[in-house]
Each structure stands twice: as C-alpha cells, then as structure tokens.
Amino acid sequence: MIAKRLSAELLPDPTRVVAQLFLPGEELHLAQSRASQIVSRVLGLAEADAAELSEGLLRDFSARHHDYRGLLERHASIVAGRVKQNQPLSEERNLLLGASFTAEYASEGAALCNPSAVLHPDQSGLDQDQVRLAVSLRGIGEGHISSIGFCSAVVGPGPSWVFEPRGRPVSTATVAAARWRIVHLRSVLAGQGHLNELCEAVLRALPDEFDSADLEQALAGTHYDLLTRAGSSDTVELLRKTVASAYTASFPKDSELSQRVLVPSAQEESNGMEDARFTRFIHEDGRAEYRATYTAYDGQLIAPRLLVSPDLRVFHAHRLAGRAARNKGMALFPRLVGGKHLALCRSDGESTSLAVSADGYVWGEPVSLQAPSAAWEMLQVGNCGPPIETDRGWLVLTHGVGPMRVYAIGAMLLDLANPTIVRGQLALPLLSPARDGIDGYVPNVVYSCGGFLHAGRVWIPFGADDARIGVAYVELADLLDELDELSTDS
C-alpha cells in the first residue's frame, strides 16, 4: 500500500526573521564580554548622530518585528549596568543601545521539516466538511539551531489540503520562570546520577512546589560543609541550570498562530528545539489542551522535554524524567489509558517501546513493541508522531531507517485497551523518498512528527529531505484492513 501524495507544499522562507539578544563575544565563547567597549562607543556618539541612526533603525526594522521599539528597550535594559548611573540617555540613544545588542535570526533560513498536525483552536469560516489544522514546523537556521514554528492548513472537502498564508511579522514569546514539584526534580537528578548529599539537603529544604527563588533560599540555608566539599560547585550549577530550564512562553494576544516561533530559552536547549510531536490531549473531564514532546540539544547532550498549552499561545515548557525519557522521539497518547499517561519512546536508540507515567512528567521502564526487522528499517525504527485512536486500535505512523540512511514512513496497529499488544505492522513503507526529489538539507528522508485523521483519511504532513513540507494521505479503512490482515497472517 502506498500513500497518495498531494501537490500541497510549504517551502522554507528565509525572510521570516526574529530579533534576538546578541552579546558580542558570546558566539565565540570568549571569557570576557565586549559589551563595555560597545556601550562606550554608543555613548560617545554625538546626539544628532544617535538620533539619525535611531530614526533609520525604526524606519527599516519596525515592520519586520512585533513591537520593535519595546524589544530594543528591553535589550538596552539588559546592558544598562554598563552605563554610569548619573548619565541619562535620550530615548533615541537608548534605542540605539538596544539595537547594538540585537541581531536578526532567520529561523528557517537553512531548512524546514518534520511537521505534526493537530486540530486548530479556530474552526471559524469553514464549510461543514472542512477542518482547520495547526501544523507545527521544525525550522533550522544558522548554526543548525532548530526552533518550533507553526502554520495552518485547511483539509477538505475530499482529498484536499491547502496551506493558509503565513502571517507577518514573526514574533517570539515573553519568557518567565515556571515552578517545579519536588518529585519531578528528584527524578531528573536521579536520572543524571546526581542525587548526592548536597542535592538531598536542598530537596529537603524546598517546599513541595518551588521556583528558582526558592532554590536560592534553600541553597543559602544549606550547611557550609556541604557547600565547600569537592564537586559542590558543580552540583549547585546543575541545580540552578535544571530548575531554570522550566519556563512559560507567552505570545502577544493579537498574534496569529503562524507568527509565533518558539526559540531556545533554556540552557539545555540552547542548540535547538527539535521535532515537536503535538497532540490534542483530552482529559477525563473533557477538557482539552495541547501537549508536545520535543528534543532539547545543548551542543553536547540531548534532553526530552514537554510543552503544555491551553491555546497554542501560552506554552509551559518542562523537562521530562524517568527511564523512558531518554534519547529522541517520545510521542504522547491523546488521552489517559487505564488511568495512566502513555507514550511511545525509543530509549534504546533503535526500537519502539511503550512507557507509562502517573503524571505525564516522570516515566517508568519502557516495554518493547517493535524492533528493526525489515530491510528498509534495519538501522532503527521509531514513531512518526502520537498514536491516532480508531475503533479498531491505536494507529501509529512509524519510521524506519535503512541502508544509505534512507528514512521511510510505515504504520503499525496497537490494541485499544492494551497498547502493549501489537495487532499488526506493515511489511513495506507507506511513503518513501521520491527518486526525483531526494536531495536537500538532509538527503533521502521523508519524516513526519504527527498525522491527523479526518473524513476517513489519515493525513500525513511530512518533511522531504529537510528541504520542504509535503503532504500525503491514505484511506483509513484500507490501511486498517491491511494491518488486520497482517495480524491474522502472523
């Protein structure tokens, strides 16, 4: 069975830029900042020159960024400590100061790939047989740093998928610290092998729910002998880094979904936020929220993380913990099963497993579901997004990696009540790289982070060679029949 490709396509757009804080010297990992020299040069300009430069910046860049003036003022405040307290700055010079520590970043200047699709919060203006989808996108920019962007698409009537125009200007979020629970932090530290006496003392001193300010208070009250032992400074740094990694990112209320870009905001994701797998999670009381797993990368290590959002405007980002929260590619089930959170994972790096959690944050020992077997998946297998619930079981889009590191998309079916039981899996791919389009940022790849079921069709947005987003679909009944037949044959 082969999925049917559509002509719908989304290409990377290098003009979609965000403005970020830029501290010269940091990009070279220099020990000494160059900020003081730059501030001195800005302060040394004649007032007329500062005013002229400021006017030009506002003219040239205001339309490219949401609240550009406010952004420059925020960046100026970050380096305000380099300005003498008795030296007042004109508004124009202050804006110039902020611009000197600001740089544009093309979030998808290098590549656009690995989409996932969920029901859009806004279903207005559609015909009865249409549905609007929110599609998450992995944008890759300078330095191979990934961020999470969005677009929308209208599906139907019939086998039709139309990407809606993406809004401008692109906007980043306002970020604030988030709170932790003791059991969650303990699990993260245990997973890293860092539950030493200093950590235990700090954990005992913290309230059940806490933030970075509470951590500092607990550290201040820790016994002096623990703080001065060999390795204690590394432990303190780890505690601060871990607690600071949780944050809330809020976009302007008047922004459209396609204008929002989640850029790295925690140290452990400083080199990228990769492959978000979104699902619309339905609680037992009927309340819906959006959840996504993604992979954080700091240039050396990866960390599985969680996004939770009521509306795709405000996002709560947190670290995942436990035996199953290792390696890449976790994907959440869209509801509780047997009163527990479930997720697909690939904690061993090559096989698909099932993990269970009581709270959705701390995950237990995974149970193996699928190991590499067919020729097209002999290197590794994994999921291509959250399971899709059908009346005949949990449909899982999968990926396999074969010789020459060729990525293809397949499928398997899990039992609805007991997803540890595999009812069937395809022997051949649903979707493989097209031979006339195998070249791109990463050749020989088709990869999805989540499909969507609508009007009897499974819609599969996919990244093609990390060069563009394509779309395919397969009839659900045909796919389930083939999976059931394979299950009967086995």
Structural commentary:
With 490 residues, this protein is α+β, with helices and mostly antiparallel strands. 21% of the residues lie in helices and 35% in strands. It has ten helices and 31 strands. It has a six-stranded antiparallel beta sheet, with no helix packed on it. Strands 1, 28, 29, 30 and 31 form a five-stranded antiparallel beta sheet that branches. Strands 4, 5, 6, 7 and 12 form a five-stranded antiparallel beta sheet that branches. Strand 6 (145-155) and strand 7 form a beta hairpin. Helix 2 (47-61) crosses helix 4 (91-99) and helix 3 packs across helix 4 (91-99). The longest helix is centred in the N-terminal third of the chain and has 15 residues, at 47-61. The model has no long low-confidence stretch (mean pLDDT 94).
The helix count comes to 10
- Spatial arrangement of strands, main beta sheet: 8-11-16-15-14-13
- Overall pLDDT confidence: 94
Strand count: 31
User: What gross morphology would you assign?
Assistant: globular
For this structure, what is the CATH class of the largest domain?
Mainly Beta
* Helix proportion range: 10-25%
CATH architecture annotation name of the largest domain: 5 Propeller
CA(first)-CA(last) distance: 18 Å
